[in-house]
Amino acid sequence: QVRLVESGGGSVQAGGSLRLSCAASGYINSRYSMGWFRQAPGKEREGVAVIFARGGGTIYADSVKGRFTITRDIAKSTLYLQMNGLKPEETAMYYCVADWTGGTWQETSAWKDWGQGTQVTVSA
Predict the structure, then answer these.
(1) Distance (Å, whole) CA 79 – CA 29
(2) Using an 8 Å Cβ cutoff, are 6 and 94 in contact?
(3) Whose CB among 15, 73, 102, 115 lies 3.0–4.6 Å from 4's, allowing a Cys bridge?
(4) Contact (CB, 8 A) for 48 and 61
(5) What are 87-114's pLDDT values in tens digits?
(6) Minimal CA–CA distance to 78: which of 11, 30, 15?
(7) Nearest to 51 by CA among 7, 1, 99, 113
(8) pLDDT over 70 percentage in the chain
(9) Which H or E element spans position 27?
(10) What is the distance between the alpha carbons of residues 16 and 120, in angstroms, rounded to a whole number?
(11) Phi, psi at 16, each rounded to 5°
């Protein structure tokens, strides 16, 4: 049974940093692309970053480039998202995703498995 469990969310002031973790079970992680999405109140869920299984290449949403970093530790079956320079508008529930089914990675329909999310709150 596959399972994704996020942690590391919390409350920070603008400009602060957080590192999110996603513990993955039931996967042979090196074979699966994984990523992070977020959903702010009243807004659609949006793709934040992805790390592809083949070659480990990464892509980021334009809004987070240069501030967020996605990495994975295959031995620990864990995905990370280091977030620096956080902004109040980035207050959202952050979700870990796995098993990209193809298509545009920023579309929610492109991902098979989702975690329950971890809340990030950034105050001004």
Answers:
(1) 9
(2) yes
(3) 115
(4) yes
(5) 999 999 999 999 999 889 999 999 999 9
(6) 30
(7) 99
(8) 98
(9) none
(10) 11
(11) -80, 180
Whole-number pLDDT of residue 1 = 72
pLDDT of res. 29: 62
- Exposed, middle or buried: residue 86 (CB in 10 Å: 0-12, 13-18, 19+)? buried
Q: Which two tokens stand for residue 105?
A: 């990675």
pLDDT value for 58: 96
What is the C-alpha to C-alpha distance for residues 97 and 110, in angstroms, rounded to an integer?
10
User: Which residues are bridge partners to 7 per DSSP?
Assistant: 21
State the Cα–Cα distance between residues 7 and 105, nearest whole angstrom: 22
Instruction: Select from 68, 53, 55 the least CA-distant residue to 105.
Output: 53
pLDDT at 28 over 70: no
Q: From CA 80, how far away is CA 93, in angstroms rounded?
A: 15
Residue 58 in tokens: 């990464």
Distances (CA, A) of 9 to 60, 68, 100, 106: 19, 14, 24, 21
Q: What is the mean pLDDT of the chain?
A: 94
